[in-house]
Prior knowledge:
By secondary structure, this protein is mainly beta. It is built from no helices and eleven strands.
Amino acid sequence: QVQLVESGGGLVQAGGSLRLSCAASGRTLNSYAMGWFRQAPGKEREFVATISWSGGYTYYANSVTGRFTISRDNAKNTVYLQMDSLKPEDTATYYCAAGRSTTDSIGSYRYWGQGTQVTVSS
């Protein structure tokens, strides 16, 4: 079992930055691909970014490419999402997830955190 806990969310003005963290316990993350997803009120959960177990491969949703950066520190069992140039449409609950494949498919991720709220004001 892997337990994931997100942190770092909050309220920020448009154009600002936030750094989300996802800390794991129970098992080490170095054999898992990790993903970030988000869900806005009334909308389906959507893919944001994913990173391979080694950190050597990353992939982003078009809506965040060039603004968000996913990274990981396997020694700290933690994954990060650096979010820059934030827009009001980035407002959502952000979730991290662990799975066996580096993919944008929600169904491929087995373990999920409880989420952290990000609100971007205009």
